């Protein structure tokens, strides 16, 4: 348990202080006596969604994973490096700690709806908010927003948790396949992301798309290989596999020519097909 966890959470019923009962594996409110169950010292303020398939822990980093994931890492690291050394960060939808290394050097709490070992708090912020208001300098949502059905409730909670002048750092995919089923709900355009900030009184400081045309070609190849080829039989399958191998070689050559994608403001590019968006919202002074 991180030493600053208890000072940043409270009883969701009365806002009283919580104490950890290690023997009983629970958190107890010193004011009203309500208890919160715990798992290995992680408070469980909400029940994980039904049907969720836990994610496996994968190696992540600035040079690991898809071009989109690597771009996410670079974007997040840049925003975190701009924070003061004593900044407190909340990583919402932290999962297996994919971006934890980018937060090193700062105090941070990792929150998710599933009790992964890397998480500090299990909570669905659209249902209950056990974190103290106005404590966080930055709140991070990396590839999380598409998995939240009640976006407005989430943003209401996040804004309450942010300090005045604090930032929301977001990476959200657009043209990617359905993933982490069954909790994959929404795809946002940059128009929707602009309206979202206006609706909640936030200032949009950065809104950029990540454009990588070869990515979609590779996604299509992957879909053919994994979803279509297994349905074919005999010579059709052999011919299709051979043709697909040729297309893959051409895609690799095209990628070598074009290079990786780039992050740009949507108004400055002709492409209408971003892989996803990077956003920084700021909570303005009243």
Total helical elements: 6
The CATH superfamily title of the largest domain? Vaccinia Virus protein VP39
Biggest sheet descriptor: 8 strands, mixed
Which CATH top level class of the largest domain fits? Answer: Alpha Beta
- The order of strands across the largest sheet is 7-6-5-8-9-12-10-11
Give the tally of β-strands. Answer: 12
Percentage of residues in helical conformation:
25-40%
Strand content: 15-25%
Overall geometry: globular
Q: Low-confidence parts, pLDDT < 50 over ≥5 residues?
A: none
Q: What is the fold-level CATH name, i.e. the topology of the largest domain?
A: Rossmann fold
Secondary-structure element pattern, one letter each: EEEEHEHEEEHEHEHHEE
Task: Round the mean pLDDT to the nearest integer and report it.
Answer: 94
Work out the radius of gyration: 21 Å
Structural class: alpha/beta
CATH architect. name of the largest domain: 3-Layer(aba) Sandwich
Oligomeric form = single chain
Give the termini separation: 35 Å
Describe what this molecule looks like in 3D.
It is a single chain. With 286 residues, the chain is an alpha/beta fold. The chain folds into three domains: 6-40, no CATH class; 67-211 and 266-282, Rossmann fold; 213-258. Helix content is 28%, strand content 23%. The chain has six helices and twelve strands. The strands form two sheets. The chain has an eight-stranded mixed β-sheet with strand order 7-6-5-8-9-12-10-11, with helices on both faces. The chain has a four-stranded antiparallel β-sheet with strand order 1-2-3-4, with no helix packed on it. A hairpin with a 4-residue loop joins strand 1 and strand 2. Helix 5 packs antiparallel against helix 6. The longest helix is centred in the last third of the chain and has 25 residues, at 234-258. The mean pLDDT is 94.
């Amino acid at each position: 348990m991180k030493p600053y966890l208890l000072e940043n959470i409270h009883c969701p019923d009365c806002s009283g202080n919580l104490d950890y009962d290690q023997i009983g594996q629970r958190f107890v409110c010193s004011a009203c006596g309500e208890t919160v169950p715990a798992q290995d010292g992680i408070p469980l303020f909400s029940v994980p969604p039904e049907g969720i398939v836990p994610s496996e822990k994968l190696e992540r980093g600035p040079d690991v994973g898809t071009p989109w994931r690597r771009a996410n890492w670079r974007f997040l690291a840049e925003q975190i490096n701009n924070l003061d050394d004593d900044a407190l960060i909340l990583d919402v939808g932290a999962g297996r700690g994919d971006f934890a290394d980018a937060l090193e050097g700062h105090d941070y709490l990792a929150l998710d709806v599933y009790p992964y070992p890397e998480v500090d708090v299990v909570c669905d912020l659209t249902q209950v908010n056990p974190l103290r208001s106005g404590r966080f300098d930055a709140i991070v949502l990396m590839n999380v927003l598409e998995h939240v059905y009640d976006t407005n409730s989430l943003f209401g909670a996040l804004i309450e948790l942010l300090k005045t002048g604090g930032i929301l750092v977001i990476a959200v995919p657009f043209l990617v396949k359905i993933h982490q089923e069954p909790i994959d709900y929404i795809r946002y355009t940059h128009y929707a992301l602009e309206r979202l900030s206006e609706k909640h009184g936030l200032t949009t400081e950065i809104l950029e798309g990540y454009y990588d045309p070869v990515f979609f070609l590779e996604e299509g190849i992957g879909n053919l290989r994994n979803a279509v080829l297994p349905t074919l039989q005999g010579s059709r399958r052999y011919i299709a596999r051979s043709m697909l191998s040729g297309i893959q070689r051409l895609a690799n050559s095209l990628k070598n020519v074009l290079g990786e994608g780039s992050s740009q403001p949507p108004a400055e590019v002709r492409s209408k097909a971003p892989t996803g968006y990077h956003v920084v919202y700021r909570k303005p002074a009243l």
